[in-house]
Amino acid sequence: MSLSFTLHGTDGAARAGTMHTAHGAVPTPVFMPVGTAGTVKGMTADAVRATGASVILGNTYHLMLRPGAERVHALGGLHRMMDWPGPILTDSGGFQVMSLSKLRKMDKDGVTFQSHIDGSRHRLTPERSIDIQHKLDATITMVLDECTPFPATPDQARDSMELSSRWAARSKAAFVPRDGYGLFGIVQGSVYPDLRKASADALLDIGFEGYAIGGLAVGEGQEMMYQVLDVTAPLLPADRPRYLMGVGTPDDLLGAVARGVDMFDCVIPTRAGRTARAYTSQGVFNLRNARFADDDRPLDPACACPACSRHARAYLHHLFRAGEMLGPMLLTWHNLHYYQALMAGARATILAGQFDNYAVGVRAAWAAGESG
Ligand SMILES: [Zn+2]
Fold first, then answer.
1. What is the pLDDT of residue 370?
2. Which terminal residue of the chain, N or C, has fewer Cβ atoms less than 10 Å from its own Cβ?
């Protein structure tokens, strides 16, 4: 049987469920740390597990270029290579081809591009993307699509969405079903409700184990993102997980959970951690700020991670000022822990019918905090 999803409860549009996979269960709502090149930067697999993460993400574009999908396959797949026996979701590679590679050329069958690493030429088609993700041993495979740029005219958005729909059908035909594995479709259509509906209809006709909402967090702003979620989430079946790709800040996550999203991934907590920015129950802190130099309080008294339970703000400040690698490691750990705790709180309060109160309380604490 393919990957499946059980919905345990709803509170308004917010949902709490469990995704059942070949590599274990995933309680939702869930945040997936990004393990770009076969590693969540600065974190051992044990450390990632200790933050409470149940599923992580790998990037097809990076892994196909280095070390190469065939090599990962020969080494036993991504789970074994990374010492991450839990579920792994891989993206299709399409988004990063468009954002990172040189001299890319799209055609109706795929995209040809030059590696940003060594200039070597590669080609990604729906079939090749699915094959690579199979070789990586992805628990959740994503269809190859085109992330419609923002802004796009209605005609541009329709052409792009229809291309993605054709590629979704080809991705499904190429996907080899395995017990507890799944393939997700991706709803496109930019900010146009009729195109989002047409995209969702086309994907539902093909049939997927889960549905992603793509083409957001590309510059449209939070308010417009929420408007698109308000019209798109209700189009998706209740018994399949919904995944908002590439989002976002803690505030974005609360807003999207309230609109019926179950799964998230984003580089924000890991990237911010490497640059001294901490997301906390009291708002966002920049640990490079001189006001922390003598501050012997924990970073976030409400957090049980090693950065908060064993060290003072002054020490974290010192590590960043001295350029010590432990600084980025500890703040990455903290930020991931914070995101996991935020989603665990969302899940518990959805099940208790208290999610709105929870979101109001969390946001009030951010506003009242001494962030900076
Ligand atoms: Zn912490």
1. 74
2. N
Neighbours of ion ligand 1 (CB under 5 A): 303, 305, 307-308, 334
Among the residue ranges 97-111, 142-156, 238-252, the one predicted with the least confidence is: 97-111
Report the DSSP beta bridge partners of residue 179.
Answer: none
Q: Which of 91, 145, 262, 300 is catalytic?
A: 91
DSSP string covering 43-66, please? --HHHHHHTT---EEE-HHHHHHT
Site of tokens 């399949």: 240
As a whole number, mean pLDDT of residues 265-290 equals 98
CA of 253 to the centre of ligand 1 (A): 19
Task: Name residue 88's beta-bridge partners.
Answer: 56
Tokens read off for 7: 């919905």
- 323, burial (CB in 10 Å: exposed 0-12, middle 13-18, buried 19+): exposed
What was the pLDDT predicted at 238? Answer: 98
DSSP symbol at 247: B
- The reported pLDDT for the residue numbered 102 is 80
Tell me, letter by letter, the H, E, C secondary structure of 279-304: EECCEEEECCCHHHCCCCCCCCCCCC
Whole-model pTM: value is 0.98
Are 274 and 332 in contact, with CB atoms under 8 Å apart? yes
Q: Is 155 a catalytic residue?
A: no
Distance (Å, rounded) from C-alpha 38 to C-alpha 62? 9
Percent helix, strand and coil across the chain, each rounded to 5?
45, 20, 35
